[in-house]
């Protein structure tokens, strides 16, 4: 008499039949990394949970990563922080001799577009499939991305890098407001409580800030507004494009943003570019050195965004948000040390409170409606 088949045996055989051949690890579920990067969480899966048998090679690989140190992820974080710090220093150094934030923002977006065209041409990155509907859905996201970028650059041109980043730490306040208004989202008590030290810390830091300027403050706040609306529209429009990875999604947004920004930048600042360029070239030492400074700023702007997507691929959105908060701390400290800005004790207390609030916000969980 043949032995009876057990449900466990059938489940194991079914899992083996579905598993890839040659011991290859199971494929990750398709999900657009750009969605999380722009404020989305991982999509929820419908239906019951199915238990499967993981191939031995995948199990051993996971065990080695969890038991040891994930050096690849650490290197991504190190590059992300490093590129961002270098960009902020180069960006502020450029604005000190060339206070044309609209043109500088355009050049930085253009450098990223050229970089990605090179990667596509050399087949280092797959060329994305672009449809009319994708462009329509990307249009508002790119618009708010443009606003966030150029407004931040305007703020950097008028205030210290450190203080601009303290104000930008208040972005969660805008995110909560717009997510509630446009998405009907409800948040936990911990999320609302985290906004108190953010607002209080930014207010304290502004009280004794030597570089304070209303134009710089408004630029930082408008940048936060653009970032929050970018997240909202990304969540509403980009969650379905699972076939485009984060690097390509960001590249397409950069292309559309460049189309938005270039004509407006010329309208706002175009009449002053020639005189500003001549003065900046003289300060830099030559046209070649000034062009090198502009090129480096553009490349590092794109690289820190690109590496952040690569870091996101190996972590969850909450960890990424915490990492982004700590990155802001690294930028604030490094800029103070490099530019030797005076920071009063009250500034440090306010900065600490704002960063603490941003950290608390990152760790709070959204309460589903």
Brief write-up:
The chain is an all-alpha fold. It contains 15 helices and 2 strands.
Shape: globular
* Mean pLDDT across residues: 78
The helicity comes to over 70%
Total E-strand runs: 2
Tally of contiguous helical segments? 15
Rg calculated over all Cα atoms: 23 Å
> Structural class from helices and strands?
mainly alpha
Largest sheet features: 2 strands, antiparallel
Sheet with the most strands: spatial strand order: 1-2
Following the backbone from N to C, one meets helices and strands in this order, namely HHHHHHHHEHHHHHHHE
Q: Outline the low-pLDDT stretches.
A: 1-37, 39-64
Sheet-strand content, in percent, reads under 5%
C-alpha termini separation: 56 Å
Topology:
Elements: H1 7-18, H2 33-37, H3 56-67, H4 71-97, H5 101-121, H6 132-158, H7 161-168, H8 171-183, E1 186-187, H9 189-207, H10 214-237, H11 246-269, H12 273-284, H13 287-312, H14 317-339, H15 345-363, E2 366-367
Antiparallel strand pairs: 1-2
Helix pairs in contact: 4-13, 4-14, 5-6, 5-11, 5-13, 6-10, 6-11, 7-10, 7-14, 8-10, 9-15, 12-13, 14-15
What does this structure look like?
- There is one protein chain.
- The protein is 74% helix and 1% strand.
- The radius of gyration is 23 Å and the shape is globular.
- It has a two-stranded antiparallel sheet.
- By secondary structure, it is mainly α.
- Helix 4 packs across helix 14.
- The protein has 15 helices and two strands.
Characteristic key phrases:
mainly alpha; disordered N terminus; two-stranded antiparallel sheet; 2 strands; globular; 369 residues; single chain
